[in-house]
Each structure stands twice: as structure tokens, then as C-alpha cells.
């Protein structure tokens, strides 16, 4: 029997990047996986149901959770939906700030709000956050604020629902080779090759490279599993040592 047989998981933002690879990993290990996303995973999930869902819409989020639970219980929730916009508090339009918050943070609130009542004891939630909740590059005011909101939400939910035996944690990736990161790199690369700017970004990490989505997915799967049964309310940096270093070079 596969280790996750009998587990019912819902992954928001599971059509690409970290969410997709996490859904694939959970499925490979025997879990029943449902993906909720605006985009179609295009057959990458080997028959796992895909639910078209705009995480900004409470009714759509509720419907996705209800469908995934299928009249039974939901064991695991992964929230990996997210968007990135660049700008300071001066240059970021209010509407853009609201959009980033609504997808990255409010969507996680809506997903948990719908899922927790359908979770039994032993349930687990993992939120995909970012190291930018703790330390920022230039021009990420809206994105960093949304990830900081997520971190506070994780702690609050962990405390509130410990009595229900539901655990809540987050992962905080550094730079990961995902479609979103590649789109960002493309906007900054000028005339140079895309792989060159990804390598440059990777060089800022002590491990001298960007992460692959599977390296984050492995941590998510662990935090969902019973092997992490005493872990809740915590954030796990999957950042190649990025936040362990000082920028001063000796």
C-alpha cells in the first residue's frame, strides 16, 4: 500500500509550479488529489480532478472544497495560489495591491474557512508563503505584505484549531524555478538569455542555484504527513540558505 492511501487532498493553485508538483507527489504516494485553479493543468495530473476556481470568489472556493470533500472528509489542504507584482507603495496602484492581497492572502483565508469544517482530527494545512515575508528585495511592497499576512494567518489558525487536532504550517521558498519566477526573470532580463538571469538569481543563495519545485513539494508532503504530527504554527524556509547569510563578503 502506498503511504498516503486513504488521504483526501485539495491543492489550490495546483495547475503549475510548486502546486502542480506537490499534487503530483501526493498522487504518486497514493492520496486522492483534487486541484483547484484558474488554469488547466493540461493532463499533467494523470486523471486527478481539476476544478476551475477563482480564489477571489468565496462561492467558487466553497464549491471547490465541497466537491473535493465529496460528502466525506477532507484530510489535507495545500494553498499554493499566488501572483507577483512589482512596485513600491508609491508606484503600486491601489487596485493592484488589492489584487495581490486577494489572491495571495484572502484566498488562503477563504480556502481554510471552507475546508476546516470538513476536516477531521488529524487534518493538516500547508500554506505556500515566501522568504519575502521576512526579508525583501526592492519593489515588492504588495507581494511582501501579502506573504506577511499569510504568516500571521498560519499562526492564528494553528492556535485556533489545535483543539480540533488540525495542524497548520507554511513553507517559505526562496527563488524556485516556476513559471511565475520565469515570467519575472523574463521581464528583467533585457537582451540577455533567460537562463542567465535565473543563474544570477540563484547565485545569491549559498547553494548557488535556484530551487526546483520538487524540493519544496517534498517539504510540503512531509508537513502534511503524520511524520510531522507535532508540528504546527511554524514556518519552514526552503531557501538554499538565503536568509542565513549576511550580504557582507569577506
Describe the protein in words:
It is a single chain. The chain is α/β, with parallel strands linked by helices and 250 residues long. The chain folds into 2 domains: 8-174 and 211-238, NAD(P)-binding Rossmann-like Domain (Rossmann fold, 3-Layer(aba) Sandwich); 176-210, no CATH class. The chain has helices spanning 17-28, 58-69, 94-115, 141-161, 179-188, 194-203, 213-224; strands spanning 8-12, 32-37, 50-52, 74-79, 119-128, 167-173, 235-238. Helix 3 links the parallel strand 4 and strand 5 (119-128). Helix 1 (17-28) packs across helix 7 (213-224).
Brief digest:
One of its GO terms (molecular function) is oxidoreductase activity. With 250 residues, this protein is of the alpha/beta class. The chain is 40% helix and 16% strand.
Which descriptors apply to this entry?
seven-stranded parallel beta sheet, 2 domains, Rossmann fold, single chain, 7 strands, alpha/beta, 250 residues
The level 1 CATH classification of the largest domain is Alpha Beta
How large is the count of helical segments?
Answer: 7
Mean pLDDT: 94
Annotated CATH architecture of the largest domain: 3-Layer(aba) Sandwich
GO molecular function: oxidoreductase activity
Protein name: SDR family oxidoreductase
InterPro entries: NAD(P)-bd_dom_sf, SDR_fam
Family: Belongs to the short-chain dehydrogenases/reductases (SDR) family.
Amino acid at each position: 500500500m502506498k503511504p498516503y492511501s486513504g488521504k483526501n487532498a485539495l491543492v489550490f493553485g495546483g495547475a503549475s509550479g510548486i502546486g502542480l508538483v506537490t499534487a503530483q507527489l501526493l498522487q504518486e504516494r497514493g492520496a486522492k488529489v483534487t486541484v483547484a485553479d484558474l488554469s488547466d493543468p493540461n493532463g499533467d495530473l494523470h486523471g486527478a480532478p481539476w476544478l476551475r476556481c477563482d480564489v477571489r470568489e468565496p462561492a467558487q472556493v466553497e464549491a471547490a472544497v465541497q466537491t473535493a470533500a465529496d460528502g466525506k472528509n477532507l484530510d489535507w489542504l495545500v494553498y499554493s495560489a499566488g501572483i507577483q507584482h512589482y512596485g513600491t507603495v508609491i508606484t503600486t496602484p491601489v487596485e493592484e495591491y488589492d489584487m495581490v492581497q486577494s489572491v495571495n492572502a484572502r484566498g488562503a483565508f477563504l480556502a481554510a474557512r471552507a475546508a476546516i469544517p470538513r476536516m477531521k482530527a488529524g487534518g493538516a494545512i500547508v500554506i505556500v508563503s515566501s522568504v519575502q515575508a521576512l526579508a525583501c528585495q526592492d519593489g515588492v511592497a504588495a507581494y511582501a505584505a501579502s506573504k506577511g499576512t499569510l504568516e500571521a494567518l498560519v499562526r492564528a489558525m494553528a492556535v485556533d484549531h489545535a483543539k480540533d487536532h488540525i495542524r497548520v504550517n507554511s513553507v517559505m521558498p526562496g527563488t524556485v524555478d516556476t513559471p511565475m519566477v520565469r515570467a519575472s526573470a523574463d521581464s528583467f532580463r533585457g537582451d540577455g538569455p533567460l537562463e542567465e538571469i535565473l543563474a544570477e538569481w540563484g547565485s545569491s543563495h549559498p547553494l548557488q542555484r535556484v530551487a526546483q519545485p520538487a524540493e519544496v513539494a517534498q517539504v510540503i508532503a512531509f508537513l502534511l504527513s503524520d511524520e510531522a504530527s507535532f508540528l504546527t504554527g511554524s514556518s519552514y524556509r526552503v531557501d538554499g540558505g538565503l536568509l542565513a547569510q549576511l550580504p557582507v563578503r569577506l
